[in-house]
Every structure is written in C-alpha cells, then in structure tokens.
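4.2 Preliminary Data

To establish feasibility before requesting continued support, the project team ran the inverse folding procedure on a target of 501 residues. The structure was first converted into the token representation described in Section 3, and no sequence information of any kind was made available to the design step. The complete token record follows.
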C-alpha cells in the first residue's frame, strides 16, 4: 500500500500536513504507540498512530520524530483530540517524515482496520488484523482484562506458547504450564541486552516498556521459542505484542484514576495530622474497612536506578496480590494494606525475589506492626522510622521491620516533624557547623561515644584514636553546646537527637 493510497481512503478523512513532493513510501504495517521512543519495536515501513501521550513539551516532539524516522517508518498519523502541535509539524518537516492529522471523530481502531483491509493478502497482515481487534479489547477492558484472550490468540496463530510476566516472576496472563518464571525474571533483570533467549527455560524475553522503565518495575513477554531463529514478520509481531501489553501496563498506574487520586489525598491527610475521627470518616468514603487492622509499608530511594514515582509500582509488586492504598508524600511512597499478621517476612521475601533489579538503587523500606484503623497514623510513623533505620545500613536495598525498632523509637513515632527538627537543630547544629568549617568529626565521635556508653578506651579503639584525642573532642562538644556529657540527662538528649536525624 502506497502513501497516496492512504490519502485516498475516503472513510478515514486523514488530513495531510507534511507530504513529500517526490516520495511515495510503501506502508506495510500499522503500529499504535504512545511511547516516547518506540524504535526498538519498529522494523521499517510502518504507519505509526499516536495520541501524543508521550509529549510533555516541544523537545519531546524532536525526540519522538528522530526515533521513528531512524527506524524507517513510512508515515506518522497523530491527534490529540484532533489537534497536532506546531512543534511536531516542524520536527516532521526537518526529518522529511510524512505527517497526517487524524480527525477527532475518527478512532485509531478505525484507521487500523481500514489500512489492514488493504494489506490483508498476506499472513502477516492477517496477524495485524488479529492484533488490532485485540488492541481494542485491551483498550476497552479493565486492567488485565484483555491480556488473556490476546495472548491465547497470538499463541495459537504463532504455534508457540507465550506469557506476560512481572519482574518478580508473577504470571499475569498466558498459556498453561509456564516455565520457571522466577528464573526467567532473574535473567530479565540481569541481562545486558534484550530481547534475550533464556536457554535454561527455552524462552525468549521481550521487555514491555524497554528503556523507558527500570526492569525491576517493568513487565516482559516470554515466548516459548528462540527469537534468533525468527523471520522478520514474527519478530515484528513480538514487538507489537509487547507494545500492546505496555498500554495495559500503563493502565495499572493508579495515579490517573479516581480511586488513585482519593488514595493519594487520604495518605497525605494522615501524614498531615488528620485526627482518628477524620481518618475513619475518609476510610468510609474510599471504601476501606474500618473494622480490620492495617500495616504501613514505607519506601524511599537514594540511588539513580529508581525514581520516586517508580516506587509506586515497586510497592504494588512487592505486596501483590493484596489490594493496597498508596500515596507519595515528599520523598517517600507510603502503602497501607490489610494485615491481620505481621507483613515484614513477606515483604523481605518479595524484595529478595527482585534484588537483582535493585542494585544501585539505594532502596529502603520500613514495615509497621498491624494496627487498628484509627491508629493508622502511628503505623505510618513507625514504618517511616523503620525505613530511616534501614537507610543507615547503606545497602542496595534494606528492609527493617517494626520488631527491630527500640521501644524508645516507637514512642518517638508520634512526635511531630516540626518538634523533631527544632530539637535536633538546637542540639546538633553547632556541631554540624563546626564539622563543616573544620573538616572534623564531632558528630561521628559523639555517636560512637554514646554507643559505647561513655567508655573512653572502647570509644578510642573504635575510632582508631588516642584516648586523649577523644577527651579533647568531647570537651569541644560540651563547649559548643553548653551541655555536660557526664550528666545522664544530657547524654539522653544527645542520643535522642542523633536518632531523630
């Protein structure tokens, strides 16, 4: 099918915006995508349909057009409610890429059906029609609702089994008798390049969201075959299937749903100081059972592997298949889950299953004890403290449960943030400023001194210093703060200030 044939299709009413004067490319496939860089799923000659969901600003248009042009697509058809932004038009002109505007009242499914009918003489075209039909099924069904029938049809047509799997090895949809998906998931997270053939399980692994999403929170499609032996149409089909699954994965993002927005506001109000009565009232509104017990799981990241927003799908995966109420406040993702028993062991086990994907992430997780609905705020505070304790361990991913918290720390969980800041600032700011100005270690020395119960020799040994040097530093600390470290009351206050940092 030539480009001019596309223009002549009367039922589509596609409006050409950028058209080459002496160039009439051949269209051999139709792909719908809203990825910023879908090039890895393109093999050339496609008509690409996009609703511009990838566009956050003008520069994104350049990035998208550069990627699809490099992949050798035949043309681009775009529409955001019938509108095509000027920056996208300019980018297409720069790259000589044909561009069409899809009218607001014409569905992408209609465009796909019409084009596929023109290409229906070959088997690959028949498979495109199957994919289009089921793309609409995925788009109209609830999360996960369309994946099962889609994979069954693709599996039947290709004559091989396939599965959609999460980073922890959970099978979301697919054929019967899946392989050892936990082993496949480990290879998915540790492989340098994808797609990859997993020889031990005899499946090929295709990422769903590719380079756009860290693998620890991505899904993948596993095919019971070695992709290196496939022909071009079959490889292209696998990429298209992954793209469709990516759409379904995006729908799981609760941030844009009504329930997700309510959950976010609920968690934010709790952290902001909502009273037990307010908490119970809001739970009734969002449909949470006020008679059961809940645990809080709090996560944060300090590395470059994961961004704050990606902690949402990470917590959902770690706590699956449980329903959770999830929100992000400042630099922490906070999940609430029904818990009649302690969740620490199950969270640790789930983290262990995705550990290869957390290397370098600096992910820290705290888990509270189960508590009554009215005491959820205390549970969140407890989990936050547990997470901060995990942060001090310096591992790629560390989980601390409520059982590791000292009784004193639990009592501190209900101290308001402004009181904590005032208390620690009053005691420790003079020492921090002195350390910064003189490149000294008064804070570190004080911490070791208190941990060794004021034993000069033990403290000096741990710090690899002479005892007199330790005594000098303690004297300097007393001078800067006006405190007396021989007094139990002052020692306790320093201990609390260090734990509250």
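Position-by-position output of the design step:
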């Amino acid at each position: 099918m030539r480009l001019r044939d596309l223009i002549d299709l009367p039922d589509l009413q596609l409006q050409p915006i950028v058209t080459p004067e002496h160039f009439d490319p051949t269209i051999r496939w139709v792909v719908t995508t809203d990825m910023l860089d879908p090039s890895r799923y393109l093999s050339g000659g496609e008509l690409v349909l996009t609703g511009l969901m990838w566009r956050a600003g003008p520069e994104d248009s350049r990035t998208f057009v550069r990627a699809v042009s490099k992949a050798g697509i035949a043309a681009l058809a775009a529409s955001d409610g019938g509108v095509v932004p000027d920056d996208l038009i300019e980018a297409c002109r720069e790259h000589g890429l044909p561009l069409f505007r899809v009218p607001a009242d014409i569905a992408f499914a209609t465009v796909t059906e019409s084009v596929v009918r023109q290409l229906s003489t070959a088997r690959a075209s028949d498979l495109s029609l199957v994919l289009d039909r089921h793309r609409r099924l995925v788009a109209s069904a609830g999360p996960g609702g369309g994946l099962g029938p889609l994979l069954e049809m693709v599996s039947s047509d290709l004559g091989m089994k396939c599965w959609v799997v999460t980073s922890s090895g959970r099978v979301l949809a697919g054929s019967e008798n899946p392989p050892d998906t936990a082993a496949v998931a480990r290879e998915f997270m540790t492989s340098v390049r994808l797609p990859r053939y997993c020889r031990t399980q005899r499946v090929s692994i295709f990422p769903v969201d590719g380079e756009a999403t860290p693998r620890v929170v991505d899904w993948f499609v596993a095919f019971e075959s070695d992709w290196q032996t496939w022909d071009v149409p079959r490889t292209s089909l696998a990429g298209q299937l992954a793209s469709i699954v990516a759409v379904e994965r995006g729908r799981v993002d609760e941030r844009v749903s009504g329930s997700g927005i309510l959950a976010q506001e609920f968690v934010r109000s709790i952290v902001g100081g909502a009273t037990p009565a307010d908490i119970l009232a809001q739970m009734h509104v969002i449909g949470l059972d006020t008679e059961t017990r809940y645990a809080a799981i709090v996560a944060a990241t300090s590395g470059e592997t994961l961004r704050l927003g990606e902690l949402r799908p990470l917590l959902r995966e770690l706590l699956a298949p449980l329903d959770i109420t999830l929100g992000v406040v400042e630099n922490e993702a906070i999940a609430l889950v029904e818990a009649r028993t302690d969740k620490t062991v199950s969270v640790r086990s789930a983290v262990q299953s995705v550990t290869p994907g957390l290397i370098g992430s600096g992910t820290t997780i705290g888990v509270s004890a189960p508590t009554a609905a009215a005491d959820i705020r205390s549970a969140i505070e407890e989990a936050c403290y547990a997470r901060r304790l995990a942060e001090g361990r310096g591992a790629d991913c560390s989980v601390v449960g409520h059982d590791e918290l000292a009784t004193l720390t639990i009592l501190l969980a209900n101290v308001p943030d402004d009181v904590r800041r005032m208390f620690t600032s009053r005691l420790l700011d003079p020492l921090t400023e002195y350390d910064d100005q003189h490149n000294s270690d008064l804070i570190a020395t004080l911490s070791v001194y208190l941990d060794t119960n004021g034993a000069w020799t033990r403290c000096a040994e741990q710090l690899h210093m002479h005892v007199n040097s330790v005594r000098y530093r303690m004297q300097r600390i007393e001078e800067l703060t006006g405190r007396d470290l021989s007094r139990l009351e002052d020692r306790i206050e320093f201990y609390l200030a260090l734990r509250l940092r």
